[in-house]
Amino acid sequence: MLQALYVLIVVLLFHTPSALAESGDAADGGSQSAPLTQALSLQGRGSPEVPPEACRDCGLRYYPPSAPSPQPSPSKGEGEQERRGSVEQGRGSSGDPFVDGGSHLSSDTRVNTARVLLESQRYAEALQILGPLIPDHPDQTDVRFLIGLTSSRWSQDPQLSDEQRLALLDQSIGAFRSILIHRPELVRVRLELALAFYLKQDDQLAQEHFERVLVGRPPANLVANVNRFLNVMRGRRRWRGYFGFSLAPDTNINAASDAEFIYINGLPFRRGAQGRASSDIGVVGWGGGEYQFPLADRWRLRSGFDLNHREYKGKQFDQTYAGVYAGPRWLFSRTTEMSLLATVSQRWFGQYSFNYDYGARLEVEHRIFAGLRLSGRALWSDRKYQQQKFLEGPLMVFSLAASYVPFPIVGVNALVGYQEQDALSHQWNNAGYWTRIGANVALPWGFSMGLSAEFRWTDYEGSWFPFTTDGSTREDQTRILGATLLNRAITVFGFSPQVAFSNQLRTSNAQLFDFQRNLVEMRWVRQF
């Protein structure tokens, strides 16, 4: 199993044609017209470490977020409808935001005036016209798109202060986000949202949206420009941070069997209530951060930490994890990177230290083409326990993950892994493997839904009598089903509410090692 996993990681990460990886879907997009490429045009090839000047003096020509396809000799009524042009009202739209539909005339002359002011780089005057139109204007998509576009372009005025620039970018992001809440399929809007995040140097979100734009098969020259933006962000990455919290009702906080009896030599023995399954409502918090110090053009020194705490009434089942890591990151090529990290971590159960690990982790990530990324991980650590010394020993974990975005509003992910742990007690030596698959989709009205399924198989060594009545080895199978529902339309300080549900079931041939568990988490997560 180990040898096969090694070979799979090496083949997938290093034997993909580089031209395909760098060009994304250029071959597919090259046959389409490219009216929007001026918005991301670059002056020459230049160094990949120099950010392209995307919006300053770029000569942007306005195009609606979803322009109607040219129609041969429309009737008078159809032509009038096309001239009215609102995305919300137009008929016969191709849905392809990279099709040049010609001039886009709104039913409101004020909107058309604002568009002319935008093209003339008279941004303040354009926003003065557009701002009052938001509350009840029928062409909401068009108005909000113009507001986002104007704010983004104006933010690049070198005479603005940093505070003014960030305020304009936040306004731009808010406008594009409000459109995508109801129309997540509009790739042009997502392109401008990605660009606003890029200009704000919020690279994690910019990368996510740029890659979803590439899946929309834009023209070839726009693909090349977006890939350069991705390369710039990859090279300039310095800080990364995350945090979150949730309420977590849990039907089995100690993952214990609810069996009332254990049978030894055919005789039943009643269990005490202390070791049985217990339910409670917990509070969960997590966070972490990382800094990358540049050592050379292709080398970075990564250092970071991760924290996770789960707390229940009475403190008996509280769980805390803290880990730190540090090591070099190598930008092997434009599509591949590696990191070799030294790791140290510790866990607490209840109010007492449970175990700690120290070891090393190898991470490899490779971008196959637009929308498809592979990542491999190999971990070795020496695990020490404070009290249960019989469990001490080395741990090895190998995993291969794939992330695929087939459409701008759909994401799919998959994971396979293998784990092997040795212990001082031969009985607790174990090896296992697992697989996971999940998908998420952005829906109208601000909703995003995710589904996942995970399966784990773990085999132990030695005799497990009396837990196995015949003295055979222990074999566990675990199934985890999950679902999430997020509403992007509700935002508090950049976070949106998410409900996550998990159903866990472990079956085992060893008594007292099976359990069922339902976990609900009401989270606040970063959206867009």
Secondary structure elements and their pairing?
Layout: H1 2-14, H2 18-23, H3 26-29, H4 76-84, H5 109-119, H6 123-130, H7 140-154, H8 162-182, H9 187-199, H10 203-215, H11 220-236, E1 239-250, E2 261-264, E3 267-270, E4 280-296, E5 299-311, E6 319-330, E7 336-349, E8 352-369, E9 372-385, E10 393-407, E11 410-421, E12 430-442, E13 447-460, E14 475-487, E15 495-508, E16 515-526
Antiparallel strand pairs: 1-4, 1-16, 2-3, 4-5, 5-6, 6-7, 7-8, 8-9, 9-10, 10-11, 11-12, 12-13, 13-14, 14-15, 15-16
Helix pairs in contact: 5-6, 5-7, 6-7, 7-8, 7-9, 8-9, 9-10, 10-11
What would your notes on this structure say?
The relative contact order is 0.10. A hairpin with a 2-residue loop joins β2 and β3 (267-270). The longest helix has 21 residues, at 162-182. α6 (123-130) runs antiparallel to α7, α8 (162-182) packs antiparallel against α9 (187-199) and α9 (187-199) runs antiparallel to α10. The protein has 528 residues and is an alpha+beta fold. The protein contains eleven helices and 16 strands.
Fraction of residues in helices? 10-25%
Low-confidence stretches: 4-104
The coarse overall form would be: elongated
For the largest beta-sheet, the strand count, sense and barrel status come to:
14 strands, antiparallel, barrel
**Counted beta strands:** 16
Order of helices and strands: HHHHHHHHHHHEEEEEEEEEEEEEEEE
Q: Strand pairing plus helix content: what structural class?
A: alpha+beta
